[in-house]
Specification:
Elements lengths: L2 H12 L8 H14 L5 H34 L4 H20 L7 H18 L6 E4 L2 E7 L2 E3 L1 H19 L7 H21 L3 H18 L7 H17 L1 H11 L10 H13 L24 H8 L2 H24 L3 H25 L17 H19 L33 H8 L1
Antiparallel strand pairs: 1-2, 2-3
Helix pairs in contact: 3-4, 3-13, 3-15, 4-15, 5-6, 5-7, 6-7, 6-8, 6-14, 6-15, 7-8, 8-14, 9-10, 11-12, 12-13, 13-14, 14-15
Amino acid sequence: MSTRSRRGELETAARPPEPQESKAARLKKKVKGIRSRPREGAYEYIFLATVTMIVLALGVVMVFSASLASAYFDNQDSYYFLKRELLYAGIGLALMFALARYDFTRLRKLAPALMGVSLVGLVLVFVPGLGVAAKGAHRWLGFGLATFQPSEFAKISVILFVAAVMSLRPRLLGSLRDMFVPVLLLPIGACGLVLVEPDLGTTITIAVTVAGMLVISGINLRMLVPPALGAGVLMLISILVSPHQMDRITAFLDPWKDATGTGHQIIQSWVAIGSGGLSGVGLGNSVQKFNYLPEPHTDMIFSIIGEEIGILGVLLVVGGFAAFAFMGYRIALKCRNPFGKYVAAGITSMMVGQAAINLCAVTGLMPLTGVPLPLISYGGSSLVVILASTGILLNIAINPRGKIAAAPQRKPKAAKSGNRGRGNGRPSGSGSGPRRRALG
């Protein structure tokens, strides 16, 4: 043996033995490694929550700016609408983060009850003493100083109900006749009650929401033609029997025919957006909100955004809803739970559809409908329901039952011993012994 190898053995023998890691320490290190891994759906959760908070923050700022004049002249308090909006936002955010931790699959059993409660609420708005009428419409229930709009609650109730039925009875989606009563009858009833209030904008929003869920389910698109034609006929009848809605159609076709009457609101909306230019006249410096543009902090708040922040503000709003749509439908398409897939598609369709209706109406691309801009317009019921619905969507993104963004498991490769092409994975020659003996 050489001197060098002998010296190495002596140094190794003289070195103190390394302490062995305890079982508890190894387990702790393993758990720490698991926690350090990104949770499935964490990217979608963070992205969607960030977009929601940015759009909500913009909405709170713009509600304060757009309502400053009317709050002072009507209530002698410039912060009147801001304080109420912060209260609604606080309630909505609490519900959003609470529902983000609540297992969305439990909502499937609650869906029929929630649908029944929403239908009862839509009927109670017509009961004297309970329903609150304003501007010729019966849309609110009064509870002392507070009011609630049942049609907003009906949106999420319809989503949960339709998703529950489609996920439990998927065979119904093969035929319009089969799915009409179990899937569409109660949502159509809800739309009819909302249409009688009258609230054409919310009716369109619910219809667009259900249509988005059916498209995600993969049904034949030709099956949507008869319901679409039926909805069009009902809306046409509603317009013909409602002078207020007929005036909006007339103002849409030719607003300059009655510029100081039916066409006043859309013309002032164009003036507000057009005067903003690229960067706007400055936050808080709107002129149109001083009793020139009706409803500046509710339905027409997008016009004030265009006036005060300009095209940059317009692009921020449109980009925010486009990002919400991208991530919402991404969650729906990746969710492997049928109920979660349909609910995610419904919530995203509700948010994006309502935003599209508002933006088209404010810019004159369609008649005014009275639909608020989600997360931005002032309104308690709408804001709370939208944030609560977003919380459900966030839970679908990270809930293990949905398995968002989970990579598909690869099939084990066939062994090299001649099992290639065997679907049962049995070893080569298995089951052939008895046959050989019989043949032998």
